[in-house]
Amino acid sequence: MGLEKVPAGKELPDDIYVVIEIPANADPIKYEVDKESGAVFVDRFMATAMFYPANYGYINNTLSLDGDPVDVLVPTPYPLLPGSVIRCRPVGVLKMTDEAGSDAKLIAVPHSKLSKEYEHIKDINDVPALLKAQIQHFFENYKALEAGKWVKVDGWEGVEAAREEIKTSFERAQK
Questions:
Q1: Could you tell me the pTM of the whole model?
Q2: Domains of the chain as residue ranges with CATH
Q3: Residues of the chain below pLDDT 50
C-alpha cells in the first residue's frame, strides 16, 4: 500500500495518523515523502548542525496555508523510521512565520493504545517545558545559515487551536 492511501485519521481532529518523514534525533538531513510515489527523498542537507527534537511528519489529506500537508512533531520514547505511520492525538501547535508565509507545526502524542507514557498530556501546557524549549529553539535556528531563509516564532497555542488547524486543513484539501 502506498502512503498516499493512508487516511488523515480515525476520528478527526482528535485521532490522527502521522506519516513520519524524519526520525527524532536524526542527522541534519531533511527528508520528504513524495506524495505520489510514497518514496522517501532527501530534500536537502541542512546547513545548520542541528537535529529534529521529535519525530517529524505530516497528516495526509490535509492542506495547510503553505501549500503542504499539515506538519506534525511527535515525541516518542524511540525514533521512528521514515515512512512509518503513527496514530496520535494533537495537543498543541507552534505558530510561526517564515519566508514563505504562515507555518504551523502541530505537536501530537502517541495514542494511548500505543503507549501509556503520554496519557497525562492533554494540552500544550502539559508538554515538558524542556521539550517545548527544544522544539522552539530548533525552529528559530534551523534555517539560520540558509541564504534568504528565516523563521519567526509567533508562539504556542493549545489543543483547540491544533484541532481547528486539522479541521480547516482537511476541509481545504477536500476542495
A1: 0.94
A2: 3-174 (3.90.80.10)
A3: none
